[in-house]
Amino acid sequence: MASTLAVRLGETAAVTLIGDGVIGVLQPVQHIERWESGPAWWQRALGPLVGNARDTRAFAAAEIVAGLALMWALPPRRR
Predict the structure, then answer these.
(1) Is 74 in a helix, a strand, or coil?
(2) What whole-number distance in Å separates Cα of residue 17 and Cα of residue 11?
(3) Can you give the residue ranges of every domain in the chain?
(4) pLDDT (tens digit, 9 = 90+) per residue, 24-35?
(5) What DSSP line would sit under 1-12, residue for residue?
(6) What is the crossing angle of helices 53-73 and 28-35, to 10°?
(7) Distance, CA of 27 to CA of 41 (rounded, Å)
(8) How far apart are CA 46 and CA 12, in angstroms?
(9) How far lies 7's CA from each of 39, 52, 57, 65, in Å?
(10) Phi and psi dihedrals of 72, rounded to 5?
(11) pLDDT digits over 19-78, tens only?
């Protein structure tokens, strides 16, 4: 059985993915603009999404799906 810490970290990751995905779907341009600054590698990673709302929404929707999949994969609480 997974440790309590591992389950909580997994759930935290799931909540982060779902929340970030929802923001990305609802406000794709603004969301990318908020995260655009940073090191060069980060800017290169976000480059294809800058000014591209459709691709940003698609990526964000995939984040939501990944977060939900992670959430459903977590073991139930201990009794």
Answers:
(1) coil
(2) 10
(3) 4-73
(4) 999 999 999 998
(5) ---HHHHHHHHH
(6) 80
(7) 23
(8) 23
(9) 31, 35, 28, 18
(10) -70, -25
(11) 999 999 999 999 999 988 889 999 899 999 999 999 999 999 999 999 999 999 999 876
Task: Report d(CA 42, CA 32) in Å as an integer.
Answer: 12
Own/partner pairs for 19-27, CB < 8 Å, 24+ apart? 20/60, 20/63, 21/60, 21/61, 21/62, 21/63, 21/64, 21/67, 22/60, 22/64, 23/60, 24/56, 24/57, 24/59, 24/60, 24/63, 25/57, 25/60, 25/61, 25/64
Which H helix or E strand runs over 51? none
